[in-house]
Design brief:
With 92 residues, the chain is an alpha+beta fold. The chain has two helices and four strands. The chain has a single domain, classed as Alpha-Beta Plaits, CATH 3.30.70.1060. Strands 2-3-1-4 form a four-stranded antiparallel beta sheet, with no helix packed on it.
């Protein structure tokens, strides 16, 4: 199942800079692993925002929730999920 996911990140200012840096390093490692596994085939930055638009390919809503909640930045995210279905006019 494909999902369009928008992730907006807002890290509180009172978190120490070295902690934030460690979280970002862990986030990149987890995102890379999910991309290499084929679960996160598309990841785009939203220009001018600390935000991304992604296409995730998972088997179920439960798997999507597990994947998203496994992200180190998850506690600092507002996430919007849109399930996707094949368009009848699509040739792909």
């Amino acid at each position: 199942m494909l999902y369009h996911v928008k992730m907006d990140v807002k890290i509180p200012r009172d978190i120490p800079a070295d902690t934030v840096e460690a979280i970002k390093i862990a986030e990149k490692k987890r995102a890379t692993a999910l991309q290499e596994a084929g679960k996160w085939p598309h990841l785009w930055r939203v220009v001018g925002q600390y935000s991304n638009i992604s296409i995730l390919d998972v088997a179920s809503n439960d798997e999507l929730h597990e994947l998203l909640s496994s992200l180190p930045l998850f506690p600092y995210m507002t996430i919007q999920v849109t399930p996707l279905a094949k368009h009848p006019s699509s040739i792909v």
